[in-house]
Amino acid sequence: MTYRIGGTSLAPERKREARPYWLSSLPADAAPERLARLARLRWKIELDYKQLKGELGLDHYEGRSWLGWHHHTALVSAAHGFLTLERQSPNRPRPA
Known about the structure:
The radius of gyration is 23 Å and the shape is extended. Strands 1-2 form a two-stranded antiparallel ribbon. Helix content is 48%, strand content 4%. By secondary structure, it is mostly helical. It has a domain at 29-88. It contains 2 helices and 2 strands, in the order E-E-H-H. The chain starts with a strand and ends in an 8-residue tail after the last helix.
């Protein structure tokens, strides 16, 4: 069903297909491999952020001071660094 007011259609807009493209500030002569590597890096960052929020509690802070928030994010970042190192070499020998 389409309504018209003054020549303007009020019908629901159809969704346009998403087109895969990237905007970049790299030089025009940059290698496409470099652009692809940087584009994939975005997904790694998003996965890390998801882990920070979901598994490590980055979004659980409910305090009101900047100092408390800073301490909370510092501890979450340290825990994330530890887990990242553990994930890279899970079978290495541990000190007693």
